[in-house]
Amino acid sequence: MTHVVFIHLDLGIGGAESLVLNLAKATLPNESQPFPAPSIANDASPVPSGTVSIYTTHCSANHCYDEVKPPNGPLYPFVHIRGNWIPRKLWLGGTALCSSLRILYLTYCAMKEKPNANVFVLDILPTGVPYLVEMNNVKAGVLFYCHFPDKLLTRDTVNGEADGGVGNEAGGSALSFITRIKRMYRYCLDMTEEWTMSFSDLIVVNSKFTMGEVQKVFPSLFLPLKTEGTGRQAERVKVLYPAIESSLSKASSKNSENSNSNIGAACAESITLGPIVSLNRFERKKNVSLLLHAYGLLLERAELGDLQIEPPPLIIAGGYDPLNIENVEHLAELRVLADQILKRYDLPPSVVISSSKSDSAESPCPVLNKATISFYPSVSNEKRHKLLSCASVWCYTPHREHFGIVPLEAMDAGVPVVAIRSGGPTETIVDGCTGYLVDYVPIESDVHGNFTVKGFADAIASILLDPEKSRVMGQRGRERVLQLFSMETFRKQWWKLLDEARMRGEQRHFRQVVSYPRLAYSVLRCLFEFILVFLFAVLITWIMKTMGWIEDDRGILGTVKFHYLKWFGRDEL
């Protein structure tokens, strides 16, 4: 049976973590039953099955998905936590460097503890790939899943986009000495990222948009590869769209059979329409302030009589870690902006509903509060399903998002989606069919005149005012998800990639073992490295003699021996 080892940096709450868990479930015999069972193993299924191990440096019981939450998470027995003692950053920064060290240590532990693995799957950072392929020449295939190039995520940009172009820092001011040092540091890490990724047997990305970005910054990865035994050339980078659990559609259809523009029976007493919902991590790059401004424009239109209905409540939910400084700061910033908008129309201030308080509510719908804007940090799977069963419109505000799993969940629940026309959502949402895509213009001083704010407000109003259109959009969204993004489709595509990675790993292992030119190359490289070390030692000795730190008739080792005898009063070693 195929054994797949996943190496992931931190099993928190986010799109990357959700994808890794789905990959693990797709590897196991049955995605609905993660534990291998004899009856399943003996079943002649067209899709193969395997076993998994998940290596990570951190998995908090209070900030993780239910699948890996101890002690009853179905994937929890497969999780191995190693290297939690390695710091996340140094005193002056160095987060990327520490992350690379953590990945290296995870890779070392995974290879030593699971030497018979068939495929190693790494994501986030490819630092551990050369350790598996070049230093140890593992027979297993090495697959790297690139969510987005780290080179484009560590700039002062929005997913790689800046005023100076993709991948460049937004400049204008004179560079200080510290800035130059940081640029040199980042340049080294960026070069390392491309170099280490090139050792992968197979590279997988989450969307065509991400593939285009990878090709821009790492063009060497798209050079054709020769396939062993054939004259054909193989592609190194391939696309695998993330998927969602099909049970989400069943759960949502039970609660909203009539139409997704109407709220459930428990909510009907309170409000007419389901809420407008946004689900993102509380990070500035998620651009949630855009939705707040659009909601303010809807309130203004309702007050002026230009909108025939009263806007339903707005719920802003998402992943929230109290230890993450940006999460804490951005939630406070959003609350200030929300209160300013609500005060303008004499509405009560926004409220923050804790996960424990909201999950204990008896009602199946989480919008029975009187506040017009509510914040739901750290939503559980149960709360997420409740939101999907009640929402009338789902808004997705990130610009240049790599893929975006949230729009798929909304479409699967039959909820129309309004999103930015950029990145992954352009591949999942069909404009005018399953939702609306709005062109992006950065928000500056004139908020009400901003094209994107007006476009979001118009799209939301169009869905709210036409229940039949909303119903048709929701139905088409469900059909699109089942056709392209279901777990069954995902599982079949994933196993094809696993088989290809395993085959390439075996071919690479055989070439490196029996290749005499490679053996000669290794010998020459060792000789060259020895010469470099020798020359470096000679240079250091000459510098120390010039500075007067050691005597002319002694070398470095002789000086160390002399001072040892002198300090400890020994006549000889």
Can you offer a commentary on this structure?
Helices cover 45% and strands 12% of the residues. It is α/β, with parallel strands linked by helices. The protein has a seven-stranded parallel β-sheet with strand order 3-2-1-4-5-6-9, sandwiched between helices. It has a seven-stranded parallel β-sheet with strand order 12-13-11-10-14-15-16, with helices on both faces. It is globular and about 95 Å long.
Number of helices, counting only DSSP H or I runs of 4 residues or more? 20
The parts where pLDDT drops under 50 for at least 5 residues are 31-44, 163-174, 247-271, 358-364
Describe the sheet with the most strands: 7 strands, parallel
On the 0 to 100 scale, the average pLDDT is: 81
Shape: globular
As a percent range, the share of strand residues is: 5-15%
Distance between the termini: 58 Å
User: What value does the Rg take, in angstroms?
Assistant: 28 Å
Structural class: alpha/beta
At CATH level 2, the architecture of the largest domain is 3-Layer(aba) Sandwich
CATH class of the largest domain: Alpha Beta
Say which CATH homologous superfamily of the largest domain is assigned: Glycogen Phosphorylase B
